[in-house]
Amino acid sequence: MLQRIRYFLKAAEAGSFSLAAQELYVSPQALTKQIGVLESELGGALFIRSRRGAELSPFGRYALEKLRPAAHDFEAAIRAVRGYAADRSRVRIGIFSALPREELALPLVSYLLASFPEYQIALEMLELGEGLRRFLEGELDFLLTNSHEQDNLSGYERLCFGSYDAKVVVSLVHPWAIRERVSLDDLRGESFIKMKMDGDHYTVPHEASFYANIPCKRVVEANNFETMMVLLGQGAGFAVFPLAFTNMDKARIKSFDYPGTPLRFSTVLLYDPRRGEKGLDRIVGGLKEQFELK
């Protein structure tokens, strides 16, 4: 039943069975069938279907209120039990899924596997916000990700693999693609496509946050980087991010310098120096020497 509850929660969040199925990597027919089974198990219709999508019924709203925290608590409990049962030699590494794999992720992982055979290396490819959340909650020993100047990572250390300014990015089908530069007024007249992110970890208040104050006509939020790239490819607006991402050289995009004060990103490996029980300092020292990092 838990899997069907997850399907229900995703469909309720998306407001569309087809969009929820896309994000869950299942067919719309499979999603519809599983939600139908869940409705039978729970004893009521969860959605009212219409041409506009799938709207929660009164029963569905009640179910959402009760099931969402229960599902979150259950998944947290499962992760805690698995973590407790894991061997102390297990090193958990999260990797932001949009980072270049052949140029960065694979060399790093290959080095760890070859140089530290006594450790069990557990890898997870994660979205940006999910990876940071799990690292800050102590579920990961290392996180390879993109971090910026406004991230609140006090108390954590980082190994830097490179730094880049955020760029304004559009698809080649966008009218801006023929330009050499864009202005703040251009941004104010266009939609801003951004990934959903929890802003609690920023070091600055909301009114000073870079992403909260990018001028635009409206904000379009995407659940992950792949969805954001699909929306960009459709010419739905502009995005702002550094160009150190997977297959960015092959992507059909045009980038511009940010017309205001830019935000500096760094590709970093984050770790907590206060957790010495696994001897992570040995791994950190080896990485510094191997990749000539600071």
Please describe what this structure looks like:
The chain is of the alpha/beta class. The chain folds into three domains: about 1-85, Winged helix-like DNA-binding domain superfamily/Winged helix DNA-binding domain (Arc Repressor Mutant, subunit A); about 85-160 and about 265-290, Periplasmic binding protein-like II (D-Maltodextrin-Binding Protein, domain 2, 3-Layer(aba) Sandwich), CATH 3.40.190; about 165-260, Periplasmic binding protein-like II (D-Maltodextrin-Binding Protein, domain 2, 3-Layer(aba) Sandwich). Helix content is about 40%, strand content about 25%. The protein contains nine helices and twelve strands. The strands form four sheets. The chain has a five-stranded mixed beta sheet with strand order 4-3-5-12-6. The chain starts with a helix and ends with a helix.
Outline the secondary-structure elements.
Elements: H1 2-14, H2 17-24, H3 28-42, E1 47-50, E2 53-56, H4 58-85, E3 90-96, H5 101-115, E4 120-126, H6 128-136, E5 142-148, E6 157-165, E7 167-171, H7 184-188, E8 191-195, E9 218-222, H8 225-233, E10 239-241, E11 253-257, E12 264-271, H9 280-291
Parallel strand pairs: 3-4, 3-5, 8-9
Antiparallel strand pairs: 1-2, 5-12, 6-12, 7-10, 7-11
- Contiguous helical run count: 9
> What is the CATH topology descriptor of the largest domain?
D-Maltodextrin-Binding Protein, domain 2
Any idea what the radius of gyration is? Answer: 21 Å
Strand count, sense and barrel status of the largest sheet are: 5 strands, mixed
Strand content: 15-25%
Tell me what the CATH architecture of the largest domain is. Answer: 3-Layer(aba) Sandwich
The total count of strands amounts to: 12
Low-confidence stretches: none
Mean pLDDT: 83
